[in-house]
């Protein structure tokens, strides 16, 4: 990992903001993509020298006021702004990764969704527990517990996720957000290093410095048993277990997607995979 993470983040993000987006005059003689350092400095109300030192890692302790100004200059959304705060050391460090154990009450809640896929992930997006429909949905993957690794290393993922490119982009943005929370998590660092070494696509997406939560998404699947179906996902943070999120996928009532999801839900665990995280 770069020792100048804030500078790398600022550089990547300014390269994607056009002068027109920033309200600056159009120029015909630009040698850089996006904004120049001097333009970011003007927009943020800081000196060009100070901003250069931030990007170069010679200044590592900007104030919250400076981060707010840079966020406005670079059109950062809320997630990206908070990510910049974490990289600048302005958010208290989380000394340990989130809990890996899923509470029994949460498992019961997932099992109470007989016509929805539900699973719990940590910030690395490892699947910690799932209900039976989710286990059936993810069963084409060789290693459904480690979703990020499967997404980029398992050929079956490109078939299962019909819009693989979109899923990959959202996943890397969520992983980048997780890295801001847990830069001292050795498992997360090892996962990122492994994927950067083994996947050119992951490396390209990682270096874009996109940051975002999983939030609400539509995902389309090509499942070998149930066929093609689109589910609407909602993501809920688990309040009692920082770092854990509950993902729930449902189909539009009365739709073909709902019929195909019902077919998937009819598959019993012993016919497919054991629900992930289920007691053995």
UniProtKB/TrEMBL annotation:
Q: Which SUPFAM superfamilies match?
A: lambda repressor-like DNA-binding domains
Pfam families listed in its UniProt record: HTH_31 (PF13560), MLTR_LBD (PF17765)
Which top-level group of life is the source organism from? Answer: Bacteria
Q: Where is the HTH cro/C1-type domain?
A: 34-81
CDD domains attached to this UniProt entry: HTH_XRE
Q: Identify the PANTHER family for this entry.
A: BLL4672 PROTEIN, BLL4672 PROTEIN-RELATED
What is the protein name given in its UniProt record? Transcriptional regulator
**Taxonomic source organism:** Streptomyces xanthochromogenes
